[in-house]
């Protein structure tokens, strides 16, 4: 329930208490209530008891969550984490909206959440730009915006906190694996599958990787194109890379595992061995990537944690309790390759 609705309920409850108090105190002098705290307390308790059955439902904190869509295994895992955490918490009610990869749908969803008077709006923004107007509308309505997993390019005053990963660091970690594999003096031709154009996860993973290899003159990105974070598009773009540069490619760096797994299929169909002829590095840490490492077709996955449900719910509860949140609630993540990945496979949750 929204704070405004909560206040309206509170007024109604106070009126009920007053009326009940008048009835119980019928015949007493007008001073009785103010001079007798014990009986006033008792009257209040009686009134509360009568109102009690509705309270747990009314006190629920309502979160409106605008999700990007279901483009990858990672995204599905994030949705599940948020839905499950909210379902298991009796204090939370979740209003979920799937934007099907469209910013306009996310903007519509935010406006609906504002009209519904939710307590907080969580948003995984499909792209970084274009949020100022709608975030200002939420701010004017007194509803906090919590950015989840991807960033929005807005003034810090327009959102309350960002819960998610350091995508630049993820790009750096992917590059470090490649540098460690080939050595600093090697000549290495890299093809890159970018995520959704304009998404912070794509922009920052590209930047982190490029920054990390820039001091090694033999490391070159010979082709770079978006595969939209999907397996099908990753395969399609990799087919085109192979057609033009099949004999030159040493490394595939993909901004997520799904695109890299699509590319693995394309490489096999082309007649090369993924994981050997072409080194495969992805981001996310989905189970299928761990399996592909175990199968010898994939080399490294940089983890990006999608299990953000508990952090989101905690953040909303902290806000309700009047606490100030950190501007960036960071995820804890690792890099997996070789035996470490094979050992971790049975315990992967997504
Ligand atoms: O924003 C996180 C990215 O979005 C994940 O890496 C990718 O798989 C997803 O679709």
Automatic annotation (TrEMBL):
Keyword set, alphabetical order: Signal
Signal peptide feature range: 1-23
Classification via InterPro entries: Peripla_BP_I, SBP_2_dom
Cell location: Cell envelope
Listed Low complexity bias regions: 29-46
Periplasmic binding protein domain: residues covered: 63-323
Tree of life domain: Bacteria
Pfam families (alphabetical): Peripla_BP_4 (PF13407)
Disordered: annotated segments: 29-54
PANTHER family reported for this sequence: D-ALLOSE-BINDING PERIPLASMIC PROTEIN-RELATED, GALACTOFURANOSE-BINDING PROTEIN YTFQ
UniProt family annotation: Belongs to the bacterial solute-binding protein 2 family.
Record's protein name: ABC transporter substrate-binding protein
């Amino acid at each position: 329930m929204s704070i405004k609705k909560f206040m309206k309920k509170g007024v109604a409850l106070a009126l009920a208490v007053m009326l009940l108090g008048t009835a119980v105190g019928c015949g007493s002098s007008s001073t009785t209530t103010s001079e007798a705290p014990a009986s006033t307390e008792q009257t209040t308790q009686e009134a509360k008891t009568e109102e009690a059955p509705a309270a747990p439902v009314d006190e629920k904190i309502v979160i409106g969550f605008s999700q990007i869509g279901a483009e990858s295994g990672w995204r599905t895992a994030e949705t599940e984490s948020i839905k499950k955490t909210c379902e298991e918490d009796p204090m939370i009610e979740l209003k979920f909206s799937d934007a099907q990869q469209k910013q306009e749908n996310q903007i519509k969803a935010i406006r609906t959440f504002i009209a519904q008077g939710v307590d907080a709006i969580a948003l995984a923004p499909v792209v970084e730009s274009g949020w100022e107007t709608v975030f200002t509308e939420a701010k004017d309505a007194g509803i906090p915006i919590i950015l989840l997993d991807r960033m929005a390019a807005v003034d810090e005053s327009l959102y309350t906190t960002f819960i998610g990963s350091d995508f630049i660091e993820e790009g750096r970690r992917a590059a470090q694996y490649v540098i460690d594999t080939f050595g600093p003096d090697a000549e290495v031709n890299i093809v890159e599958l970018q995520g959704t154009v304009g998404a912070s996860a794509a922009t920052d993973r590209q930047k982190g990787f490029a920054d990390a290899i820039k001091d090694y003159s033999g490391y070159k990105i010979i082709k770079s194109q978006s595969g939209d974070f999907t397996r099908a598009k990753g395969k399609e773009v990799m087919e085109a890379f192979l057609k033009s540069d099949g004999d030159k490619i040493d490394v595939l760096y993909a901004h997520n595992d799904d695109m890299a797994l699509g590319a693995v299929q394309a490489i096999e169909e082309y007649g090369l061995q993924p994981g050997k002829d072409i080194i495969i590095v992805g981001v996310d840490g989905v189970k299928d990537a761990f399996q592909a490492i175990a199968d010898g077709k994939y080399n490294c996955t940089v983890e990006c944690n999608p299990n953000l449900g508990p952090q989101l719910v905690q953040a909303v509860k902290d806000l309700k309790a009047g606490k100030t949140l950190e501007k960036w609630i960071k995820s804890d993540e690792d890099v997996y390759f070789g035996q470490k990945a094979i050992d971790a496979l049975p315990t992967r949750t997504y």
